[in-house]
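Dear colleagues,

As part of the handover before I leave the project, I'm documenting each prediction I ran so the next person doesn't have to rerun anything. This entry is a single chain, and its sequence is reproduced below.
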Amino acid sequence: MYETLQPQLQKEIQEIKDAGLYKEEGIITSPQDAEVTLEDGKKVLVFCANNYLGLSSHPEVLKAAKDAIDTHGFGMSSVRFICGTQDIHKQLEQKVSAYLGTEDTILYAAFEPLFNDQDAIISDALNHASIIDGVRLCKAERHRYEHNNMADLETRLKETAHCRNRIIVTDSVFSMDGTIAQLDKIVELADTYKALIMVDECHSSGFMGKTGRGTHEHCGVMGKIDIITGTFGKALGGAMGGFTSGKKEVIEILRQRSRPYLFSNSLAPSIVGASIAVLDMLTEATTLRDTLWNNTQYFRKQMTEAGFDIKPGEHPIVPIMLYDAKLSQDFASKLLEEGVYVKGFYFPVVPKGQARIRVQLSAGHTQAHLDKAIAAFIKVGKELGVIK
């Protein structure tokens, strides 16, 4: 019966193309790095990856991944509680806990086993889609507070005073804007109203804070966040997989009742081995973190002086505001011609009328990389009338 669905899908796809919103995938034939090779052989600088610390192709990370394959195999062919837990899985969980300053860690994330209809989840309005999907799976009451608005959060806390447990859920860094959650103020409100806190550190772990522990370190509230979720798919090596870290009883009940944990294959040994090496590297020194922050400050300063409309902040996510969806795509296309690989973001990824180029800095970027990207932005910006 596909003949009834096919024309419907073809029409929708064509409408996306006609609106100039069709998402093309750029194919690269090299490892992810500050510079990559496209399928036509052209080399370009990448300014749109989550490779914040430049570790996706780091020699020590690659060696650890290969060593783990040699010692522990390619895949687990099972879930954790049957026969899918190796010694290195436990080592990685212990290292994440030590790095974040928490009691225990489980290699994945979920809400569902922790809360029911007697409880309430209070979520920032701009939380990432993965958090929203997790909240939807849970039977707890669902409440939203205006983005980063502490007065509105306090109102929601008062409204949910009747609930058994309340948990405030927020991204630590909001991926489209690079804004940082006010965790110090959230902790104060949580203490006042006896609420729990869950923070998603996906765009923070490894480089936020003086030693890179995350936004809870950056905001001076280490040890005061009940549940921390994060990923190995961004700064911590760039592969895949996630974790939940926090109080030991929380982690234990997740091991016992969480469906994704109980019914999904264990993280591959190569990823586990590489992730252990990443945490060892970041524990020993802050060199990569420091380089990233220097690169971020330089790029933000130069682009602002060039006249671009940039959302203020300090994070290596740097939104270059263009407002028009088609313009964002044209701008990205012309930058690619100049050897700079970025993507235009537009509705529904961001609100209508808020289209942008989201630049992401990396410790892998050299001064020459930064200067080439800035020059390309200025050239294209003048050509398209974005700057004078």
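The chain has two domains: 19-48+286-383, 60-284. The longest strand covers residues 317-323.

All the best with the project,
I.
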